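Weekly sync notes, structure subgroup
Attendees: PM, AL, DS (notes)

Item 1: joint prediction request from the bench team. They want all two components modeled as one assembly rather than separately. Inputs as received:
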Amino acid sequence: MDTLDTLWAVYGNLVLTIGINALLALSIWLTLSCGLLAMANAAFMGLGAYAGALLTMRAGVPFPVALAGGMALPALVALVIGLPTLRLSGVYLAMATLGFGEVVRIGLINADSLTGGALGLNAIPQLTRWWHVVLALVVVLLVLWRMRRSRVGRAFEAIREDETAASLMGIGVMSHKMLAFCLGAAVAGLAGVLGAHLTFFIGPGEFGFERSVDILTMAILGGIGSLAGPVLGAAIITLLPELLRAFHDFRTMLNGAILVLIVLFLPNGLWDPARIRSWFVRRRPSGAAATPAGRP
Amino acid sequence: MLALDRVSKRFGGLAVLEDVSFAVPAGSVFGLIGPNGAGKTTVFNLVTGLLAPSSGSITLNDQALVGRRPHRITRLGVARTFQNIRVFKGLTLRDNVIVGMHSHLGYGVPQWLFSLPAFRAREARAVERAEELLSWVGLPGRGDAVAQDLSYGDQRKLELARALATEPRLLLLDEPVAGMNSGEKQELMVEIGNIAARGYTILLIEHDMRFVMGLCSRIAVLNFGRIIAEGSPETIRSDPAVIEAYLGRDE
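Output from the run, pasted for the record:
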């Protein structure tokens, strides 16, 4: 038991960070599954983190209330900024949402009486337990899994495939995009509150452009064809820098090189059920007949 | 059922449709023909709400369609297929058709979230109905195939099944047999005839004259954005203005 405790003391934070990053990857998966390249998730995470932290620190509310508040605020903001921006498509939406992210970051810096400005918020009570993260991830995964199998999930797929054709199937395109955007914002906010009450400190720099790109990378790297993809991508993006510690100064370079290789050779992401199935199908006949002949 | 009254559409200075009026009676198969660029597809885009007319009114059973958004018009009972096929390529045939049932599945969030009996019953019904519609258009038992693996002709049939899934009263078919060989054309002609016999009203655009003359009870001819003739296939065939539009005039 002692070794386990030591292991947890060393790596516990890392495991929980994977869980929080998985939530973030799933939050952007929601909009991606609708064909929307929205890059506002880091900002939504930040809004959630600040809202949650201020609720527990200043208002002294119980943790569940802070969680609810940290999800509701980004969802509401998403509703407001979604109205004009979700009409945009492709890179234009990405640019608009990145711009929004900068507005949030600069807003957090300038509202220093409330947010602590560039210094951030310190001494956030460490209320996040390991099972909070696990429960949040399981609940989000369950809801998304059920959604994919319902008419809502099918509508998302149809919109991603062909927006015009989807609207002529009786699908309200705008309302479904808005749903994906707001749900994604709420999940990102949830990750923000959990993260803030895990790390003791939050600052505006954590929720900027780099974080946005990280979140997108996790989802794309893992693969957006399934729910397992973003979770896997989050695990890899979180673990890779740790595993490469031995390489010291070359760490970030190697990290980047590995990502480039994966994207080059596995364009649908690591978790691509169709490709895995095709390996399986091809291997069986080759295992029976071709292997002896194929051996050198 | 569908009535267009002096509908005009201008893109900037270009008048694509001018004072187009015609009425599609309930239960009929109505043909809209005309040379390339006459504005036929624009008529479909106006009826389905993808474009707004510059002037004029479009009504479905006396309900105004102008100003309604496309998904609302679909829910009123108008479905269409596209000249340039627009199936959901990455989805299976079954899912393509079930997407068409979107507004008829009628279950709410708790039902799908907790997989309640109502949800499961509706979904099972949808799967059954999808198989039925696929067999109507001549794709029986192909539900598990992915749409992009289908031949051109089969994708057109899939679009037809998907349009039928929206439970339309009026079906708009934009060149349903374009790019098909004569065997496939014959087959689809029979299938569309069967669909019409089930009580659907059909408005179709087509270049293939044998197909149009064989299926339609009434035909309107569009040339340079104006209706130049309307009537039964026999009158259209002998109409001098139509012959001129298609074959040109003797000098």
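Discussion: The interface with chain B takes residues 143, 146-147, 149-152, 154-155, 157-158, 161-162, 164-173 of chain A (CB under 8 Å).
Action: AL to compare against the crosslinking data before next sync.
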